[in-house]
Amino acid sequence: MVEPSSPLETSRRDFLAATARTACAAGFFGTALGLWIGQARALPATALRPPGALAEDDFLGTCARCGLCVQDCPYKTLKLAEPGSGPTLGTPYFEARKIPCEMCSDIPCVAACPTGALDKSLKDISKSKMGVAVLVGHETCLNFLGLRCDICHRDCPLMGTAITLERSHNLRTGKHAMFIPTVHTEACTGCGKCEKSCPLEEAAIKVLPPKLALGVLGSHYRLGWEEKKKKGSALIEGTIDLPDRGYSPGEPVPPAPERNSQGGFKEFRP
Amino acid sequence: MKPRIPGQAAQARHGWWKASQWLALRRAAQVVFLGLFLTGPLIGVWITKGTLASSLTLSILPLTDPLFALQSLLAHHSLEGKVLLGAGLVLAVYALIGGRMFCSWVCPVNLVTDGAAWMRARLNLPEGVTFSRSSRMWILGAVLAVSALTGTVAWEFVNPVTILHRGLVFGALYGAGLAWVLVAALFLFDLAVSSRGWCGHLCPVGAFYGLIGRKSLLRVSAIGRQTCDDCLDCYKACPEPQVISPALKGATRGLGPLILSGDCTNCGRCIDVCPERVFEFSPRWMDRKSKDVSSQTTRDGTTQAAA
What is this structure's pTM? Predict the structure, then answer.
């Protein structure tokens, strides 16, 4: 039995054409979305992730952008990225120069995260790696200018471990010491207290993402002394130890050349 | 000609409350659901923490948007148990009550697009650009594919629902910043470009929740369909009018009075605006046992009671 065709019923051809059109539009939309994601997942160097954050790509695929970590941060350090504020939309971050991480011992932000984007295996906040401090302003840092500012050192929650003051000679005055704030990257958590407390108009010490801050050795690089330690003996066996010229084992070492009253060598004739 | 506004006839016959009760309840629910998130930031009384993406109510009840969880899993990321539990709870509840009740009773964007539709009806604007209702399914498919290909939760890069909700919660209502620009854009899109364009045709969140609720137990039933006088008010008020016909006019084709499409948002506006009181909420299992079937057979002599 053939039903009378109604103007509301679509033919197979119309249906296929409409489906193809919508599919093309969806493909276009998907491509545009993919391109936008490529653009939008940039993370500015000044934006730091909360403690325990997974590596950035994993973080962006796991973070729900729910803001629970932000609401549980007692110091209002963390904030969610708004449209146009830099980091990927809706993700939590902080800026050390504005409000640094106070390194709560119970890490409430990590405890609040429902998805695992902030890794709960982080139990000790001093083991976190939010970034690494780098003293970038060698020409502006007051200690580099020979003054005793030391604020970053003294404000560091891991003073004496993550930042030490290393003494060196002040070549400008010729007679003073300089105390150079020196970051030890294995201890630095990237909390940003140093960057916050730097008294300069623009901080001379900055917390950067570890990759930017540290550089990465080529994967084929080997440190000879480390390899030797690992092996427990010389790396190349059976090298021949050639005799040293003018000297054989057992003989007394020849005396050092005599010096004159000015400190020069007696035998030296210019 | 002055446009016929759906609901005015019902109000004239049954009074304001009968012609507006579901709309009023729905607005109240939207305010309450937003309020649960806002008491903390505004007055320091924390009821629900987080946002619609993932939340924790009274420090005990975790809820998570299952669409987020699905995207993240498709992008090959493992999620913690808490978020999977939260997504499971949301899935279970909406599977029972109708997935798109999220759209009409919870989602903050609904206030924006309903506002556009309200103004549209009063300005008597033409339909504008029409997209296929299946567009949102294609967009949902594209979103899931892009998530899998890029290894990230693709829709969260553009999702107006969570952008607006985050803006409201973290801007503590007024400081939502650029989220308001997005709201204005959505409003203008629905008002000037396409009638019910966003929530009714394009939003993949709605598409996803529609899929969840396809077999839901709570439905709207055109239980009094024999009294329908074809005033079309329900079609005009309904954000998804394509769902009405099978139930309202399906008696001759042997279809029951239940609105079975997953697209129905269970907003209840059809119940409000119908001057003949055709519609009411009904559990799914009432489809065949409705009084309508028996009365319908006697009234117009069709034999769909056997169907």
Answer: 0.80
